[in-house]
């Protein structure tokens, strides 16, 4: 059980840093704005995505009811899959930016599996 908790916290903190802290710090940078326009998203989408990422990452870190955490996990899974599809359509399937969201999706799945194992709620 101790190894499961350690794995849970390591993977959850990786998601928190990648999806909560980094976007909060760098979402207004020129590189982030160029990335959104490169993927042909409207400019307001970045602010909306930022708000949801920060709220979702806080839900994963702070104790909340289990069903709320399930929605946060589902939201991040949707974000990662959508990011991979968006990059795949624009940049091609073999681009690193297309593959990277799947790596974070795997980390998210490990976090979710450990979360369910620790708290023994039905998957």
From TrEMBL:
Alphabetized Pfam families for the sequence: DoxX_2
Broad class of where this protein is predominantly found: membrane
Keyword line: Membrane, Transmembrane, Transmembrane helix
Bilayer disposition of the protein: Multi-pass membrane protein
Compartments where located: Membrane
Transmembrane segments annotated in the record for this chain: 7-26, 41-64, 71-90, 96-115
This protein's name: DoxX family protein
Lineage: Bacteria, Pseudomonadati, Bacteroidota, Chitinophagia, Chitinophagales
């Amino acid at each position: 059980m101790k190894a499961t908790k350690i794995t849970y916290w390591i993977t959850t903190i990786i998601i928190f840093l990648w999806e909560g802290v980094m976007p909060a710090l760098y979402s207004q940078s020129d590189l982030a704005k160029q990335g959104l326009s490169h993927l042909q998203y409207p400019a307001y989408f970045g602010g909306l995505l930022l708000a949801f990422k920060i709220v979702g990452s806080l839900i994963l870190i702070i104790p909340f009811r289990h069903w709320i955490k399930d929605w946060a996990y589902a939201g991040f899974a949707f974000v990662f899959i959508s990011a991979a599809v968006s990059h795949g359509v624009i940049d091609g399937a073999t681009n690193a930016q297309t593959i990277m969201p799947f790596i974070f999706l795997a980390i998210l799945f490990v976090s979710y599996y450990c979360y369910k194992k620790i708290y023994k709620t039905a998957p």
